[in-house]
Each structure stands twice: as C-alpha cells, then as structure tokens.
Fold:
Amino acid sequence: MFQMSLSSLQHSIARSVMACERWLVATLLIASTALASAQCFGWESHGPILGRQQHCAAYLPTTQEILFFGGSSSTDYLFNPTSGVWTSIHYRRPAGLHGPAAAWDPATESVIVFGGTSDGEGRTYSLTRSVRAWKLLATNNAVPARRNHHAMALDESTGKIVLFGGVLNDGGALTGDTWEWDGEEWLLRNTSPPMARARHAMAYDPERGGVIMFGGQGAVAWHNDTWKWDSAVGQWIPIAFGGPIARIGHVMAYSPADGGLLMYGGNLGGQTQRLDDTWLLPSNGVAWSQVDTPFRPGARTNAVMVLHKDSTRLYLHGGSTAADIVYNDLWQWSGSATGWEQVTIQGLGNVLSLRAGVAGDPATGTALMYGGSTDMGRMWSWNEQTHGWEEIEVAGPNPGIRVNHSWVLDESTGEIVLYGGTEFVPSGIQVREDTWIFDPFARTWERVIQYSAPGHRTFASIAYDPTTQRVLMYGGESHDFNMRDIWEWDGVARTWTRIGNEPPITNRGSVMGVDRQTGGIYSVVGQSVYEFNRSLGLWFLQGTLVPENLEYPAIVYSEKYGGLILMGGRRSGQWLGWVFRRDPLTFEWNRIQYGLSPNGPGYMWPNAAVAPNGRVFRTGEGSSSWHCDGPIYCRADLNGDGRLDFFDIQMFLALFIQRDSRADLTTPNWTFDFADVQSFLNLYSGGCP
Structure:
C-alpha cells in the first residue's frame, strides 16, 4: 500500500474524468481515514400533505411504495399502503415540476421521470430508492423533445417504458410521437397515428399484453378513443369505441379485481366542468361500461392513480376542481364490489403549526411540539410508529396561542420550561414575559409566579447546561430591541437569575448553545463567536468565525453529530438550509450539509431540539416540522462504509460519468464539470467529522 499527495491525486482524477477512464485511478491506494459511520441522507419532513395536481406517480415494487412527484407541490412523498405511512423525500430533485411523467424501469430498478414545464433540455432522470438519490441519465442517441402533459407507462411484455404525446415546451404545439425507453436509451418508434394529443391517460393491461391509451386533448377536438400499443410492429391499434365522453386530465390503471382498466374523472372537453364518473374496460371486451358507486372521490382533473400490485388496490391522489381547489386526499379502489373508499392519511396530515416550539420528551423518548400561529394552544407528541405528530390531551390552563417562544427540557427536573414569546389574544398580539412549566408525565401546565424575570422577549435562545444543571436563556428581541443578556433558570427553586455581562456587539437573531463535550457556552453573533466565562461573568471573542453571516439560525448540541450544530438562518435576506458543525478540537465551523437540508419557508425563524433518542427535530415558518436521525453523512464517503479510501474515489468517478446527483457537488444545477471534481478533492482532503 502506498500514499499519494493531494496534488498527484488531483491530476490523476482530473485526467481520468476528462478521459472518462476509471482505470487510471484504479491503481491508487489511499490511506483510509476513520469517521463516524452513522449517516443521515437528508431531512425528513412531517406536516400536512398539501394539495397537488399536474403531478406524476409510480409504483416501486422493490419497496412496495408509491412515489408522488412534482406538480403544484414542492415536496415529494413515498406512500406505503401496508403501514399507511407517508415519507417525505428531499433528495436533490429534478426540474420539470408541472406535467412530468413517471414509470418504473425494471432494467435499472428505478423510477424514470421525463419532462415537465420547467425541463429546459429534455432530460431523463432516475430515482433509486436504495441509494436515495436522483440521477441524470446520459444518453447517446436522440431523445424526446422537451415536453409536458405527456404520458408514460411500463410495457411489462417488453420491459420497456412507452412515452406518447404531450405539449412541446418550445412553441406549445401538440405532438403525437411514440418513444420507448430500454433502460439505457430512448428510441423513436412511431409518429402517427394516433393524432397528436396531451393530457391523455395510459396504463398497462396484463391480460391484453400491452399499454392502453384513452382520450386527451387534440389540436381541433378532444378525444374519447381507445388504443393499444403493439411494440412488435411499432403501431397503435384501436381496440374500443364509444363509451366515456371525450375528456382530458383523467386517470387510468389496471384493476385486478375487475379484470380490466379502470378510469376516473377528468375535464369535460371544451369546458371547465370536472367529471366524477368511473368507467371499466374489461380486458376481454371492446366496450366501456360505467360503474355506479355509492361513494366517489368527487369531480376532479389532473389527479394521479396507481396500481399497488402487492395489495391489488388502486390509489388515487390529488387533482383539482373547476374552482381550482386542489385536493390533498387519498382514495383506494379494491374492486367494483366495494367501490371507492377514502384512506385516512396518517401522521403527516394533522399539523399546521408555523413557528412552533419543539423540545425533548422524557416520557416517550421522542419530542413534543407546542404553539404556532395556526394552532389553538394544542400539544403534539411525536409517534415513532406512524412517523407523525399526534395531539395529546392536556388538562387545565395553558400558555395560549403563541409563537417565537423559548422552551426546552430541564433535565434536572424532567420538566419542560417555556418562556415568553408572542401570544395571540382577542385584542391583538402581546409579547410575553411569563414562565410556564409542562410536566410531560402528568401532561399538565403550570404557570410560575415570578418576582424577577428576564422581561418581555421573543426569539430568545435557550439550552440546558448539564455542568450546572441549569437552563440558560440568551438574547432575543423585545419590541424590536435586540437583547444581549443571559439568564439562568433554577428548576428546583423555580427562579430566574441574571448572570454575567453582555457581549460587546449584538445582531438580529443571535443564538447561544452549550457544548456538552467541552462544557463551553457559546454565542453566535452574525459570523462572530463568543465564549462565556462563567467564573468571570464575561464573554470573550473566539478566533474562529462561522462561514456565513447568519440571522435567526437554530443551534443545538448533539452527541451523534459530535458537537454543536448550527442550522438554517437568513443571509442577506435569503433563508438557507445549510448546516454547520463546530469541531470541538479545532473550534472551526465546517459546513457539513448543503442542499439536502430543508430550504425556503421551513427554515425561516427555525427552532430546534434534540430528543432523548438522539433525533434532531426542528420547526420553522413553514407548515412542516423536520427531523434527522443522526450525523449528517460525510459527503466524501460516497460508499458509506465509514472510511475515506480508494473506493470513494472510484465511486465518485462512476457517479460523475453517470451524472448522478451525488456527484453534482457545486451549485445544484445538474452540470457536471471540473468544479465538481475540485469540490470532491476538497471534501476528501478535509476529512470527515
């Protein structure tokens, strides 16, 4: 075994990448570096499933889940019908949000997504569940023109994905071309007939042995024709006539219980009227028949419907009404004998708490959430089984409807301390200076009578100090004045005491954290970091800076992360999803996660806590809360084996050549160039936490 200098490694990898020859680095043996093996591939959100339309869906037989992707919602979900659990996914997602199409590809065991209104280059992406990453697929042959509102379906008789029609992104013309995806390349198979169209429906019928298409929007008329794709001859063959009226935006899938194709809803041709009818085309027949059901999902268009093969049920999700009301519901179809049944959405669909507070719960080992501008003073407990929040009954008075409060688990008493915040009262809003204690075992609130209090404030930073067994609270805002004082809560005596002086500077949204490994108390003021000397009661400026000048980040200490973690915050008016870790040995703040953490409204004014089970929970301005199970993964440890070595270099080259999102290490733009190579070299040489 031998070592190579970083510069030699850089030149070797650069030559290899430009030549696409992985064998040039196959001779490298790099001395490995140990690192934490636990990983977190991304944050998981749990909040209401928002309404969605113009999206796509696909069934993943490897995990028995259904993927809902794109459309009018920026969050994608995996639904497991067996457990009833919804899981949000936040891997770096492709563009093309409205009107994409998706289908399962057995050749690569991944979901293939193509097109959409934001797809500027006609790109093909794949999602592999096992590695939790989207991949931009490289093709050598011609590809379909960029388009939206086309349809795709897996032809199980050939193992190929069939794509037909759509609206061209350039010019808006309808197209009637047929393409097949074989796992590696697109192949143009047919250009006519049928007539060019968009917003049609396609599904595979195993008894007919082919992909069936119905309806859609034509250039001069809307269609109600039915066709079957014959891959052997490369032609569409008409198989049924009459039946449902012409429509667009309908959904269709094979129903095993009925032995035929089931179709629902859509938009009536040339009008804004939405349809709520159910139709069946038997696999052994040529005529559609309407199915009368006592309950139905309601008139809608632009929904999705997928067959879950393991349960033989069809699932319908989303869509919109004529008044553009977007649905977020889920319906299942088990056959004509039972008809439509609405499915209760577990876990994710019950909380909408903006700027709520989250704290560890010693009673369950997970977390509690309280408050929020849209919550009526309710308390929520995290349920590990359903992966969602469940409301718990709390007797007696409570702090009311409030936001931007501070609350944390006082480990010395097992109680949760809440202070201040903004309360919504009939006359308006009021900034509070009260202290409340919540008993997580008895599930009761108690307001503490105070003779000395820190005063009115919001956005104050709060943490438990195990060295003194006290709760510390720092800073915050009081009527637009930035506070810099630090207070100590004695949970036994139930008193607040001011300690020490103030840092020499202040900044909006400054935060404080306690490093349990070193015992240090640190304040982050913009980019500056101060350490509090308890014996002297003074703050001292540290020599290291946070890489970004942030306002209103969240800060917690996590044993799994191995230090203080700084998350989110605002920089120059932009809310970021970055995560920084403070190295307890060098005191440097290193950015350890980029685009995989939640961005946008969910990271405005974040609040975070570490549950007793080690999970990091956080809330913010958005409607979702988030958690991450353990340490952010080391980005250079691409194979996840807990070591930095030759195999990570080899994997980076493979991912780079395959245009996998994990190799797009610079600005997430799906462009793979030398900047990504240089970024990997920097990550590799920098080691891992």
Notes: Helices lie at 6-19, 646-658, 674-686.
